[in-house]
Amino acid sequence: xxxxxxxxxxxxxxxxxxxxxxxxxxxxxxxxxxxxxxxxxxxxxxxxxxxxxxxxxxxxxxxxxxxxxxxxxxxxxxxxxxxxxxxxxxxxxxxxxxxxxxxxxxxxxxxxxxxxxxxxxxxxxxxxxxxxxxxxxxxxxxxxxxxxxxxxxxxxxxxxxxxxxxxxxxxxxxxxxxxxxxxxxxxxxxxxxxxxxxxxxxxxxxxxxxxxxxxxxxxxxxxxxxxxxxxxxxxxxxxxxxxxxxxxxxxxxxxxxxxxxxxxxxxxxxxxxxxxxxxxxxxxxxxxxxxxxxxxxxxxxxxxxxxxxxxxxxxxxxxxxxxxxxxxxxxxxxxxxxxxxxxxxxxxxxxxxxxxxxxxxxxxxxxxxxxxxxxxxxxxxxxxxxxxxxxxxxxxxxxxxxxxxxxxxxxxxxxxxxxxxxxxxxxxxxxxxxxxxxxxxxxxxxxxxxxxxxxxxxxxxxxxxxxxxxxxxxxxxxxxxxxxxxxxxxxxxxxxxxxxxxxxxxxxxxxxxxxxxxxxxxxxxxxxxxxxxxxxxxxxxxxxxxxxxxxxxxxxxxxxxxxxxxxxxxxxxxxxxxxxxxxxxxxxxxxxxxxxxxxxxxxxxxxxxxxxxxxxxxxxxxxxxxxxxxxxxxxxxxxxxxxx
Length: 644
Description:
Elements: H1 3-9, H2 11-19, E1 22-30, H3 36-46, H4 52-65, H5 82-87, E2 94-99, E3 103-109, H6 117-124, E4 129-135, H7 142-154, E5 158-164, H8 173-190, E6 194-199, H9 223-229, H10 235-238, E7 242-244, E8 247-252, E9 255-264, E10 266-267, E11 272-276, E12 281-289, E13 292-293, E14 297-298, E15 302-307, E16 318-321, E17 327-338, E18 350-354, E19 357-370, E20 377-378, E21 388-401, H11 408-411, E22 412-416, E23 423-432, H12 434-438, H13 448-454, E24 460-465, H14 472-485, E25 490-494, H15 495-498, H16 510-529, E26 533-537, H17 543-551, E27 558-564, H18 567-573, H19 578-583, E28 605-608, H20 614-627
Parallel strand pairs: 1-3, 1-4, 4-5, 5-6, 24-26, 24-27, 25-26, 27-28
Antiparallel strand pairs: 2-3, 7-9, 7-16, 8-9, 9-15, 10-14, 11-12, 11-16, 12-13, 12-15, 17-21, 17-23, 18-19, 18-22, 19-20, 19-21, 22-23
Helix pairs in contact: 1-2, 6-7, 14-20, 16-17
């Protein structure tokens, strides 16, 4: 009895058989115009997963916008965006479901264009197998190598090398063997363990579901037969028990459980677990689901776990089996795929999302980037769109993790731009940095509050930002003189002065500017801890780095002073002749001319130097300090209060 008859005569039996089939997730990837969408369309068509109305629409669309001269264009089953159909390319990741008698499938058709590599990463992140297509006329291309390298980094071990468009090379075995040889030489370097090469024609259907008479020299399985029978190891099932806490389930006073999806291993009542990063341990008493309690739960299942002891577990904590614990660190090495048009700047703060935990992070060092064509390791100070690198990452708290090769959910992360909330990178943790495990915070008896109180003040940072020539240093210097006259304890960090010593190794590229501010922000934090009122006078053109400096301190300890001077006015002053040189092209990356300045959005103090003298501005800032309680026992006389 075939499937159609079974559906008509016993729908319940059909549904039961369908429910118990195994599921294979795979992706198609490769270079532009290799025929990925056509192949998936052919698989859907041949597996009879197209309804009659869809088939009618496909035939109609093929005549209107198809690329096969009026014949069925199978790619249109997958390319659903108008822009895709107009250009004949894939832009977005297209997920399609189909099924045969033996297995269910979810396939992700990923874009071939380099600018859409980020979309390919999305599709590959959940795949068990990759079908890498190559045009038989073109062979191994740069994008073929790029996608293959990414597939290897994501941990996919099973690869089908589909040599497509064999009909356009006369089904030449010589051409097929040459391409396979070239690819295997490359694949050996990236650790692929299981590669099956198949000569196919997605358009004609050769070796897709039926063996082709046009390739009598090929003795292997068809693509569909291989997909139906390949044994794909699910590393999550064999991994140690892991579950990110997504929700603390407390419906009433008598029930308390921790809900989440198991990302690795199995768990049973009676198992000993540890909550991380706290390190508290307990024993599992129940595994609760909406359908009742379970005796065992496995990776992929969403459950609520109840514990014997009332230990503190919050959203974002990792629950792990005590028999095989994850690593815990705040610095680690990772493989990073940069997915933003804006370059990576080491030292810049980003949000890092690992499991259900979100934290502040920065790339502290680019160890090397990878030339995907040759696999050569290259030195780099920054990363551009689609570049791949080995990097060191630092996060603002201790976090539990596993190497990505052992568990994708506890070893894979994304970086998010803190200003735009855009995902800018995907990362795969390799190992913890040993220095993060050997360095501990030393507790001291004399703290910040005690140091500041002894000086009769509250320590803080006055962060002066503005264009070159705006008057930042002049105003900051006057503020310090007035504070000194009042007997206050201060220190001033000036941009030019710091570059003579602490930051003498840095230039003026965007990357060096970020590192320049990062170092100064850390020094400022130490000076606040010493109880000082610290005045920082730097152009500091980027919002992200000023936010980094603010986030290092407690609420109320950071006052951003925006010295607002129009660039035309700053150029008129030009005390150092820098604008003239920048306009002449003698100075590169000059803020306001060839490098951007990002205006503060909500500074505590705004100084308009076209309306206020430097002396008035200094007095106004002093009044702001007094009103915020930074100067104990000091009052500004009413008649000396300047107007902003």
